[in-house]
């Protein structure tokens, strides 16, 4: 019995020693990790302090922030009034056109860098030219309009909203926050725009049949989907938007090469991290900033996907000024 107790005591002692040794190793490993992390943070902070005085890198990071804000803004808000397609397809239309322009910009910029291998001064000059051309392309967008006669309602006295409802469609109980589906009622020489078929007093037609029997108009009136007047500036708006979108990747490529040539080899990773962080920050700030500004210029807002809202109709000259100035 005594021998068994002694063996058990020896076993417990060995297990205790092993546990203490394991805890000691874990403590040493934890301290080593903390030391490595501290050294890494000190090196990173030292690199950041060293790069803080680099003016070229500072300007490059600022450009990344501004381009990130531009890329993060909702692009369809500015193009919706200019697309000749139904509002349901405006994002598809603007997405295809802008994506194609970006692909062209990436291809042209890559071929130019590989073929020409420009110097730092050339890169700085070209970056200024590209940014200037982008600003020149955006300036006319703030002044472009589709002309008068296309408003889907009459403005109220304070100009803060539109009176979408008419006496001829009061019994339809139309939802003011619904989707923007403009229709045009052509009644003889008159052409009256409405926010949706419901606001024109049109009952849902049979499948494949045109709209008709609308209360806002005579029996001979013709109702067609879309605005009453086509937008004459649609082509110019699309060309300027595609030009600006195609220059964005070119500006980012030139900006990246310029920043990498302005820092030492050991600081390149930190510089790339700073640029990516500021660009990502701009992508986050863009929708918030533009959304707040658009909210002040919106005359008719409605529900969009995932519980969000969008400005279906903006004040004349106000919404485009917010988006492009």
Placed side by side, the strands forming the largest sheet appear as 4-3-5
Beta strands, count? 7
Q: Please outline the major beta sheet.
A: 3 strands, antiparallel
Number of domains: 3
Residue-averaged pLDDT: 72
Number of helices in the DSSP assignment? 8
The CATH C-level name of the largest domain is Mainly Alpha
Q: State Rg.
A: 31 Å
Based on the coordinates given, report the CATH architecture of the largest domain.
Up-down Bundle
H-E string: HHHHHEEEEEHHEEH
Q: What percent strand?
A: 5-15%
CATH topology of the largest domain: Growth Hormone, Chain: A
Transmembrane segments: 92-114, 126-152, 235-258
Membrane topology: Multi-pass membrane protein
Subcellular location: Cell membrane
GO biological process, one term: sodium-independent organic anion transport
Summarize the entry for a quick read.
The protein is mostly helical and about 325 residues long.
Tell me the layout of helices and strands:
Blueprint: H1 2-51, H2 55-72, H3 76-79, H4 90-116, H5 120-141, E1 154-155, E2 162-163, E3 183-187, E4 190-194, E5 222-225, H6 234-261, H7 268-297, E6 298-303, E7 309-314, H8 319-324
Antiparallel strand pairs: 1-2, 3-4, 3-5, 6-7
